[in-house]
Design goal:
By secondary structure, this protein is an alpha+beta fold. The chain is built from four helices and five strands.
């Protein structure tokens, strides 16, 4: 079966985790709607991929998203693969945008970037994310922004 995003949904896949992952990227991130984090992120959420000093919970996730939106005002995340294993959602995709402000110490370059990444989010029984890990091509991003 295919979801309306064109992402393949396997038989037996947890619909709740699938829908929460999709909502996180397509509605909260792409839609710039931080109010959705109340339904998507648990109070005790830990983002293991965030910069040091980023708070836990919804406030920390909001800070990460706002930091990315400031650096890439036209940022979009396109899901290319989405899978679920129990309470863990795995999302592979590409964030693209124009580097308009400082990120990771790199001043605005005005360059268009495509940043490949894989996100793993673990969800609680209420369908809220409690943990996040990421594998990102940060070296490729730094090259595209002109830092290397």
């Amino acid at each position: 079966m295919r979801a309306d995003t064109g992402v393949r949904v396997s038989a037996g896949m947890s619909r709740d985790v699938f829908n929460q992952m999709r909502s996180f990227w397509e509605k909260a991130f792409n839609g710039r709607d931080l109010s959705l984090l109340d339904d998507l992120i648990a109070d005790d959420y830990v983002n293991h991929a965030a910069l040091p000093g980023t708070p836990t919970g919804r406030a920390g996730q909001a800070a990460v998203m706002e930091r990315l939106w400031a650096a890439f005002p036209d940022a979009r995340f396109e899901i290319t693969h989405l899978a679920v294993d129990g309470d863990v959602g795995i999302c592979i995709g590409t964030m693209s945008g124009t580097h308009e402000a400082e990120l990771l110490g790199v001043p605005a370059s005005g360059r268009r970037v495509e940043w490949r990444m894989c996100h793993l989010m673990r969800f609680d029984a209420d369908g809220r994310a409690i943990e996040h890990r990421a594998i990102r091509d940060d070296l490729g991003l730094m090259r595209q922004m002109g830092a290397l």
